[in-house]
Specification:
One of its GO terms (molecular function) is ATP binding. Pfam families: ABC_tran, oligo_HPY. The protein is an alpha/beta fold. It has 17 helices and 12 strands.
Length: 514
């Protein structure tokens, strides 16, 4: 299936993850480790995206930043696994409240972008023009981000001159949506608590009538909350009808549809608060490299797997269905039922990794970062875990970001492959395409280093000379130019665009290997 027909699950735009370094005495400039520097990519639902590169290039940091385990320094990370109405994040209220002033700010940024473009175009070729190009890119990014913040929420309404009534009605819808979601979660919590109480009473040998009598008040509470939910739902429908009428009124504007295509229900993970992000944690999971140190040695397998289920209120701790659910997940991950009361130290490396996988998948996530998930295992066990991950992906329609140094593992498991160098993705394509036609010199060098048992294959191994430059002060222009055998003067001065060289094949290089 072509990429443009697939559903995007995560859209990353200009992501930066910098870590500040403590200033030394007399140092004026604040320095940063630029672990991820301007990363842009889409991750499609149901795919496995492999990520390769040398140690220290920022692969694990990117995985953890996507999960918002680090607060990203800059950029947008849009998540489409849930509707924005389910979370109703605070940043949406802020944008809707200030639509008028934000549109004015956007106009100011566009003026700056135009000035930067004119300055760039007026200069002759040379160092000064290269510097002006960087300033133009910065101005373009600021204007684009401000524009997307607005149009992703209001779409075609962007064409309306006076945004005040639009702001009012959308804000009203937002607030009612927040109330709706709060009530829905409360009903869910009450229901889980009720199930737990029923299980406890059943265990104590109470009759069906006694259980019914004891839980009657809780049932009434749930019924009352459900009635309130219906009222709010009806009010929301009325508000949305009003929005629809407004859309019909403004749809005659020729530019309405042009801006309406930008409207989507994506959630900008980078702007969520810790509490809002907590709600999404169940969707975004991580499988760690070291299966032993990632498991709590004081907890049994059953406790480890059920911990997340209780924290996210899937079950009450007394609910009889909890153990049944945990055993089912263990079976899917190839763990025998009698392991449930054992501790991590009683297992081999492969079994511990299966426990880690079971813990991640118990919450029914949509996106899983597998951070060197098989690197610490024996080769024979690696194949079992990889096949397990592939089976679970098919069954649960999971999406993986698979980080590894091992190109053969990446080739086997991935649908697409991204190659990272010093914090940037330098090449991205389908697995077949990237192994058949490496277009970036760094990818060419990596693939040439794959050992082969075919004695007839006469392949030149490309030796990359020198160490990876420091991510604190990376080289100017293309970061790979200090080790690239094709580098020319432009590579030292201009950052190459990450552009589509062939359909679905993206590369950032001034001298692509076509």
């Amino acid at each position: 299936m072509e990429n443009n027909k697939k559903k995007v699950l995560i859209k990353v735009q200009n992501l930066k993850q910098y870590f500040p370094i403590k200033k030394s005495f007399g140092q004026k400039e604040r320095l940063y480790v630029r672990a991820n520097d301007d990363v842009t990519l889409d991750i499609y639902e149901g795919e496995t995206l492999g990520l390769v590169g040398e140690s220290g290039c920022g692969k694990s940091t990117l995985g953890r930043t996507l999960l918002q385990l680090y607060s990203q320094t800059d950029g947008r990370t849009m998540y489409y696994g849930r509707d924005i109405d389910e979370i109703a994040p605070g940043y949406v209220e802020d944008i809707l409240k200030n639509l008028v002033s934000r549109k004015q700010t956007l106009q100011g940024l566009r003026d700056k972008e135009d000035s930067a473009r004119k300055a760039y175009e007026a200069l002759p070729d040379g160092d000064e023009k290269y510097a002006a190009l960087e300033q133009l890119h910065t101005a373009e990014k600021s204007a684009r981000d401000a524009f997307l913040d607005i149009v992703q929420l209001i779409g075609g309404f962007y064409t309306v001159d006076d945004l005040t009534p639009i702001s009012d009605i959308l804000l009203k819808e937002y607030k009612q949506g927040v109330e709706y979601q709060k009530l829905k979660r409360k009903i869910n919590e009450e229901q889980i608590s009720l199930d737990g109480t029923k299980s406890t009473l059943k265990e104590k040998g109470k009759s069906k009538d006694q259980i019914e009598a004891t839980t009657a008040s809780a049932k009434n509470r749930i019924s009352k909350l459900e009635s309130e939910l219906k009222v709010i739902e009806s009010q929301l429908t009325t508000i949305r009808s009003g929005i629809y009428e407004l859309m019909k009124k403004h749809k005659s504007n020729t530019d309405f549809d042009k801006y309406e295509v930008y409207r989507d229900k994506g959630i900008n993970l980078a702007r969520l608060t810790a509490e809002e992000m907590r709600f999404l944690r169940k969707d975004l999971q991580l499988i760690f490299q070291d299966p032993y140190s990632s498991l709590n040695p004081r907890m049994t397998v059953g406790q480890i797997i059920s911990e997340g289920l209780l924290a996210h209120k899937y079950f009450d701790k007394n609910d009889e269905k909890l153990q049944e659910y945990v055993l089912n997940i263990m079976e899917k991950c190839g763990l025998a039922p009698y392991f449930i009361h054992r501790y991590p130290h009683q297992f081999s490396g492969g079994q511990r990794q299966r426990i880690g996988i079971a813990r991640s998948l118990a919450l029914k996530p949509k996106f899983v970062v597998c951070d060197e998930a098989v690197s610490a295992l024996d080769v024979s066990i690696q194949s079992q875990i990889i096949n397990l991950l592939l089976d679970l992906k098919e069954e649960e329609n999971l999406t993986y970001l698979f980080i590894s140094h091992d190109l053969s593992v990446i080739k086997y498991i991935s649908d697409r492959v991204g190659v990272m160098y010093l914090g940037n993705i330098v090449e991205l394509a389908t697995t077949e395409e990237i192994f058949a036609h490496p277009t970036h010199p760094y990818t060419e060098a990596l693939l040439s280093a794959i050992p082969t048992t075919d004695v007839d294959t006469k392949k030149e191994t490309i030796i990359l000379e020198g160490d990876i430059p420091s991510p604190i002060k990376p080289p100017s222009g293309c970061k790979f130019h200090t080790r690239c055998r094709y580098a020319t003067d432009i590579c030292k001065k201009v950052v190459p665009e990450f552009e589509e060289a062939r359909p679905g094949h993206f590369v950032a290089c001034h001298h692509k290997l076509m």
